[in-house]
Structures are given as C-alpha cells and as structure tokens.
Amino acid sequence: MILPALAPALSVAVPLAAAFLAVVAPRPRLLVGVTVPAMLAVMALAVLGVRQGGPLVLAVGGWEPPLGIALVADGLSTAFLVATALTIGTVLVVALPQFPIRQNETRAGWAFWPLAFLLWAALNAVFLSGDLFNIYVAIEFVTLATLALVALEGKAKQVEAAMRYAMFALFGSLAYLLGVALLYAAHGTLDIGLLAQLPAQDTASLVAAGLITAGLAAKTALFPFHAWLPPAHAGAPAPASAMLSALVPKASFYVLLRFWFDAMPEAAGAIALQLLGALGATAIVYGSILAVRQNRLKQLVAYSTVAQIGYLFLVFPLAGGSAEPQPWTAGAWTGSVFHAVSHAFAKAAMFLAVGHAVLAAGHDRMSAMDGLTRRMPMTAFALGVSAVTLMGLPPSGGFTAKFLLLTAAFASGQVLWAAIIVLGGVLAAAYLFRPLARAFLPDRGRYGTVPRAQQALPLALAMLSVVLGIVSAAPYDFLQTGRPAAAEEGLE
Amino acid sequence: MTGAIFDIVLCLLILAVALAAILGRDLFGSVVFFIVYGLLVALAWTRLGAVDVALAEAAIGAGLTGVLLVGAVARLRRGGVVEPTPPRPLARGAQMGICVLAAGLVGAAIAGLDPDAAGLTATVAQNLEASGVGNPVTAVLLNFRGYDTLLETVVLLVVLIGVWSLAEDRYWGGRPGLRQHAKPGGVLATYGRFLPPLGLLAGVYVVWAGTDQPGGAFQGGTILAAVWLLVAMAGLVDAPPVTARRLRLTIVAGPALFLAVAVAGIFMGGFLHLPPEHAKQLIQTIEAGLALSIAATLALLVAGPPQRGAR
User: Measured between CB atoms, does B244 come within 8 Å of chain A?
Assistant: First the structure.
C-alpha cells in the first residue's frame, strides 16, 4: 500500500519535472514518451489505491491541517485526474508533429511544451488540493498557463483574446481571494474538511461564499461571464484549444463543486441555487444559438463549450443545498461529474479532429469539412462520435450524464430543468449537424492530409467518451468513494 | 493617541491615493499614484507589525510592479496607442454602483468578525521549533505551507514563458529587451558602477536573514533583480539570448531544487517533509536557489521579450 500513497504527490511532481526539463533541454519526443506513460502508471496507482483503501490523504510535509495543507484523492478528484491524464496525454502526442524542435528552435515550438506540462501540473494541483488558499494558488497557476497558451499563435487577435481572458480571470481570482480571506478571518482555517464541520451561517461566510462563487463562475465562463471564452479557445493552436476547452473550465467548476458540496453544504440558500441553475440554463440556450450562427469551425466548437458548461451548473438546483440528503441528489451530482468528464473527452477529441481537418484544408471555414468522410474517414468518424456525446445520444457518457440529470429533475419535481436539458440536446444537434453534413458532400479544390496514426488519436479519445456511457456502473461507484453523506443515497 | 491619529491619516491617504489612481484620466498619472499607493500600503503593514509583508509589498507591489507598469505605458506611447475613452456616465455609474455594493457587503462581513481572532498564530508558534527557523513567516512559507510556495515560484516561471512567447518569431534566439546605452560619465553610468556592490550585499543579506528575521527569497531576489537591472541600464552588461542554456538553467534552478527537496522528502518521511534536524540548512539552500531564480526571472520580466536578433 506504500505505492498508491505516493500517487497524489507524483501527480504534481512528475509534470512539473517534465516542464523544467522542457525549458532547459527541449526534447519533446523523449519528454512525452517518458512522461505520458509515467503519468498513466501514477493514475493506475491512484485508482487502485482509492478502490482498495478509500480516499488517499497526504498531509504535505507531515503538517496536519489547519497548520499544513492536505492533498486529498477521493473518487471525485481521481476521476478528474484520470480524465486529465488521458486527455492531455493524447493531446501531447497529437501535438508532437505540430510543435517540432528542429535545428533552429522556434518560439512556439519551444514554449508549447513547458506550458503544456505546467498546465497539467496545475490542473492536478487543483484537483488534489484540500485547502482553499492552496486552491487559489493552483487555480492562478492554471490561469497563467492558459493565458500564455491562448496567446501562443502570437498574432494581435490572439493577444487581444488573451488580454480579455486575463481581465475576466483576474476579476475571478480577486473575488475568490477576497472570499478566502474572509473565511480565514471568520474560521481560522481554510481546510475543506475542517470547514465542513463548522457552522456557516454568519455574514462573513455568506459574503465569502458569494464572492467565491462569482469569482469561480467568471473563470468557468458561466453566462454572463462567457464572452472571453470563444475568441480565446478558438484562437489558440488546436492542441492547446483541446486542453483549454476540455479541462480548464472544469477546474474552476470542480472547485465550486468542492466548495458547495464539501466545504459549506449548509450555506446555500434556495435562491442562490436556483440562480446558478438559471444562469446554467441560459448558457445552454444562448451558447447553442450562438454556436448555430458561427461560420468558422473552431469558433463553433468553442461556442459549444459555452453551452455545454451550462449543464454543469444544473447540479446546484438539482442536488445542492439541503443538509438532508434527498434520494435524487447522488444521481444529479454524479450526472454533472459524468457530464464534465465525457465532455472533456468529446471536446478534446473534437478540437483535435477539427484541427486535423483545418490542417488538411489550410483554413477553418466550413468548407474545410467538405468530403471529409472520403479524404480522412477516421477524422470524420471522430467528429461524429464526439458529436454523439455532445448531443447526449445513447450509448455515450453524455447520455448517461443527461439521463441522471433528467431523472433527478423529475424526481425532485423541477420539470423546467428537464425541459432545458432536452432543448439543449436538440440545439446541439442543430449546431453540429451543419459541419457534419458537409463531411458527406463532394470536395472541390485541393486538400492536404494528415498521417493515419495521427488521425487515430482523436478517434480514440472520442471512443473513450462513449465507453464511459457503456460501462457507467463502475465509474459511478468509484465516484462515490469518500463522498460526504449529502449525496450517498441513490435513486432506486 | 498619536499612533491612532497617524493610522487614521494613513488610512485616509491610502483611500485618496487609490481613488486618484482609479479616477485619473492620464495613464501615466494613474501608474504613479499606484506606486505611491503601494508604498503607503507597505507602511500600513509595518503599522500592523507585518514587516515581512511590508518588505514584499514595497519591493514587489510598489517597486517591481511599478517598473513594469511604467515600462508598459512607455511602450504604449512609443507604439502610438491612444488611451481608451472613459466609459459613458451611465456605464460608469453602474460600475461604481456594483463596486459600492460589493464593498458594502465586504464591510458588513468584516464588521461582524471577531476582532481578537488570532487565526493560526498560536499553532504556528507551538510548532516553530520543529520548523528549523526562527521567523514564523518563513516557517509558514518554506515549511508548514511550503507546497504553496513551491507552486508560486513555478507561477513566476509560467509568467516568464508567457512574456517570452509574445516575442516576434524573427527575434527568437535574440536577447531580451532593447540594448541600453548610458552617457559615459553620466549619473547612470556612475551609479551603475557604484551601487551594485552595496545592492548585492543588501540583497544577499535579506535572503540570508530571512530564516530568523524579516526577509527571504522573494524580497532579497527583488533587490538582486534591481541591481542587475541597474547595471544593465547603465549599459555595462547585456542579458544573454533567451535560448542560452545557462540562462534557462538559472530560471528553473530554484523551483527545480525546491521540487527535488520535496521529492527527496518522500524517502525521509513524506512529500516535502523537512527533518527538523536538517530543516534550517534545507530551507537556506532552497531560499538561496529561489533567490537566484526569482532575481533572474524578475529582471527578465522587466527586460521583456526578445526585441532584437541574436547578434
């Protein structure tokens, strides 16, 4: 049992070490070849450890909270760690030919690698942290790595998108930090486990909760804070977009989940929960309508992220608040996590596949899709499969997620949310049908191509999002490991 | 009594200067007020007995950030960028309304707090002996919550990579910033030779003293960065090209050393565990490495992305 106990520390240490090496000795092929398998092994250890012995808890430096920081790998954190490892692992292999280091080192060819490894370390640091201030540091780390990746193309448009993202993200950081400071002043600890045992109805805690929620919502690009996301995600190079759209908003959402369900489950008022749900619902409808109107492939995929993020926030009205566990809360909570993970796989696959279509066509207008089924069948198939998850059709992970959320909506009598979920699926079909239909058209003009081995990677990632729907029972049970009582009861 | 009057005046000044920085029409003026604001806040920290925070605020909050902002304004002017027109009165009113509302809520929350709450001060004091250092702030930063600090030093590295990646592609491999020239025999050239030894001494002292007194790698590193920048501005040295191996080793040395100590801890009791009998030496080693990397990184942040060819 000694090895699994190392998994939390190694999840952060390994990508950090890879990043340092990538700065000094830029050898991407070697670094990816060693780091990705090593991280997959660490993930296997973590899953094994959590399944056998429950949550892995590490008091860093041997200092127990509240003095020190605890790293916690329970079912939820491990699920996000594994999703991150599989997504970034695939993205890095796809990125190898796109950011090569030749005799003469280039700017983007060098900078992409340390930034990608640093983003990986930062995301893992967020998912493992059990301390609200440490989460601030980790989420700031995520933001800055993201900022650099957004601007990586180096043109004025991307730098402008990065600046806009910086404004939203810094507002989010400051609001979050202010909330954390108030919580520390009120309770003398920032450890999530210790905060959960304290009463949280005082003014300071409630104001803090509001600030933290607003800050994290801005970082998650929840409507009305969504304006930064499409230009930022669409303007980055495709492998960077894949990581940014699939994982980065999930990190701040994950912290919201931890905050409202683990740290302060009793602080949530019904109005706040319904408001978060309403913003999520607006994001689903508004983001989808904007996605339908896009004429650029990458923009369309980025707007789809705005819409898909909305579903995550339905967890608050469906499962949040009540200190008494309701029979449907476990389903709604797990449904939103399923949605986060399957969207991560599907969106990364979609950005990578679109990236290949764009590479072959030389532009990202809709016509880049023409004849894709004949020219690059695997890429077309990857797009189709990831679209199935985004629309929430069976047997994908997206379907399982929506099924769980729908069941909870009906069981709790909140039919309006159910209607929104169904409408969102229809709208997703509408915006994804346009590019997919063109893939069957005859192609005119000249197109390049992408090696088959490269095309296979996004397809594998897209298939993962489907596998998650087919074998959903095991991940469902795994996610419950270490859950506080609030969500343990399941619907029969 | 005089203390209370001083504090009230200081608070009013801080508010006034903050308002001046926000409401100023002229970008450069706002930056100047921002620097003054940082210095006043540093003064406030010393009044609260937080000398470490005051040092950091003065060095990084006012000093380094001020230099970066002045540099940014100068760059905008050189590029002929027009300052944006202020928002319409209605939008401005709405923004102010939101700010006042938020400030009111935070004020209400603060009013409800227990003024005598000491947080974790007592817990830190109890464990200070085992931390290996005498300065409780250093004990928290490098031992009890060393993991935060490890991530923060990596954040600096992220920022530098981000700044470098804003370079134009054709200048990749070149030296950061523009070549500096100073008039021979002028003030800059003279001070560029006269001040560095003193600055070096002060910087190293602040890093060294940090284990038992106020100070540490961030504050000392900032002083060392300022020394290097002074010498560079005097035209006496030039930054190495961004592709130089030794430069890259310097910027990752501190965080890499910290990470190595953290991982080595796994074999001595756990990730980032510093055995009490060696904790002081380990912390000093980490601080020395961090000071080097922080100094180099901060100086390179001020110098900016490469703007000229390799030669």
Answer: no
DSSP bridge partners of A256: none
Same domain, B73 and B177: no
For B57, the token pair is 């605020």
Structure tokens at A440: 């069957």
For residue B183, being part of any structural domain is answered with yes
B151 and B218: one domain? yes
Residues B23 and B154 in one domain: no
Does residue B108 sit within a domain? Answer: no
Total Cβ atoms within 10 A of residue A395:
15
- Give the single-character DSSP code of B25: S
User: Are B72 and B137 within one domain?
Assistant: no
| Domain extent at residue B152 | 130-311
Residue type, A17: A
Q: Is residue B123 part of a domain?
A: no
Sequence-distant (≥ 6) Cβ neighbours of residue B230 within 8 angstroms:
B191, B192, B195, B196, B199
Question: B152 and A137: CB-CB below 8 Å?
Answer: yes
List Cα–Cα distances, A330 to A474, A486, B138, in angstroms.
15, 8, 43
Contact B301, B176 (CB under 8 A): no
For residues B123 and A221, the answer to whether their CB atoms sit within 8 Å is: no
B243 contacts on A by Cβ (under 8 Å) = 105, 110
In degrees and rounded to multiples of 5, residue B177 shows phi and psi of: 70, -170
Domain count, chain B: 2
CB contact under 8 A, A68 and B109: no
Judgement on whether residues B180 and B306 belong to the same structural domain of the protein: yes
In tens digits, what is the pLDDT along chain A, a chain of 492 residues?
478 889 999 999 999 999 999 999 889 999 999 999 999 999 999 999 999 989 999 999 999 999 999 999 999 999 999 999 999 999 999 999 999 877 788 999 999 999 999 999 999 999 999 999 999 999 999 999 999 999 999 899 999 999 999 999 999 999 999 999 999 999 999 999 999 998 888 899 999 999 999 999 999 999 999 999 999 999 999 999 999 999 999 999 999 999 999 998 877 788 889 999 999 999 999 999 999 999 999 999 999 999 999 999 999 999 876 656 778 888 999 999 999 999 999 999 999 999 999 999 999 999 999 999 999 999 999 999 999 999 999 999 999 999 999 999 999 999 999 999 999 999 999 999 999 999 999 888 788 889 999 999 999 999 999 999 999 889 999 999 888 654 444 443
Contact flag A111-B164 (C-beta cutoff 8 Å) = yes
Task: Check CB contact under 8 Å for B168 and A188.
Answer: no
CA distances from B217 to A56, B60, B134, B204, B292 (A): 33, 12, 16, 9, 8
Residue B255 lies in a domain: yes
Helices and strands (H, E) in chain B, number of each type: 12, 0
Task: Please check whether residue A462 is in contact with residue A346, taking contact to mean a CB–CB distance below 8 angstroms.
Answer: yes
CA distance B166 to chain A (A): 6
